[in-house]
Amino acid sequence: MVKLTFYTKDGCWLCDTAEEMINCYIQKYDIKVIKIAIDSDDDLYELYRFDIPVIEFNDGSTLNGRIKKKDFLNQLNANIE
User: Fold this and answer.
1) Domain residues for 62?
2) Is the pTM of this model over 0.85?
């Protein structure tokens, strides 16, 4: 199982695109996604407002912004438990 923390915000088209990509691989890679809206917390908003979407993997590595499928799959494979 791969655990991902997905930082997002409503109305963000990059976030929507990243979420669609994640959803394509949920079953194949047994992914558990924890989705967090950054606008629900002032500290998270300040931390990620210019970087969303942000995908944080088990090992603490992250991908953000325009996330390429190749980069996502590489990180996903590196984090398979």
Assistant:
1) 2-78
2) yes
